């Protein structure tokens, strides 16, 4: 029992000491606040003395009001500086956005111009394709019109009213053009198949440039002209092709059989090839020949080389095309140049 009373006494003393300490702390904090309040409530007199003989201005305040005013002014100035910087950043961002917008507008105008150019090219393509299909007898209504969706062909494309504007119109035009080009694939494939099926026929008819690589130029056309040596008027029955040099390979312009390999005082070394459908071709003034009489040759085979034999003013090929007993203008049969 004695020990229990002893512990209770110690506990009571500890509680009393703790309460006394807390009371002392509270009193100390209270005195500090009182001192701070007294300091803040200290009266100040601010005097404004002008350099002139004007009246002295003075007003009274306290430390708290002065400190609050200083904090308020500093806050206002800081806010002004912050928002000023923000405003400068916004202005710079706005200027950058305006520059980007101008660049985008310029790019859009360029794209619109290119779009117009594509549409004009497509218009010419439509006209050329229509003419080609008509010449080949291909039914355009079944190959193009049916393959196109309603009002998606170029007729509707170029007759479109200004019902839409801006990028919407350009996008609509491009969709219609894409649809038409897709529908044009079928007739073009038909043309390709037709040409492929006629490849043998084309190979039997003279239709290529007679000098390998498509080089050379026409130095004397077919028809009435002045003889370069005698100066007399005469009918030039062939096409003179010059490369300004000797030795360039001469090609057979169609499949056929060599019927003549000879030399003539006027034509020099020359070769005559017989083709199907009563067509003959003659190649003159050769430096040398590479074929023999009776030999069968294919289109684009080398039959000799450009020279200046016979009556000639320089290295060139005199090329003739005969249909039966008629001599025709070879220019009509050399519209296709080979690049091999």
TrEMBL record:
Residues 235-330 form the M23ase beta-sheet core domain. CDD domains: M23_peptidase (cd12797). The chain crosses the membrane at residues 63-83. Signal peptide: none annotated. The keyword Hydrolase applies. Keywords: Hydrolase, Membrane, Transmembrane, Transmembrane helix. InterPro entries: Cell_wall_metabolism_enzyme, Dup_hybrid_motif, M23ase_b-sheet_dom. GO terms for molecular function: metalloendopeptidase activity. It holds the Pfam family Peptidase_M23. It comes from the Bacteria. This is Murein DD-endopeptidase MepM/ murein hydrolase activator NlpD.
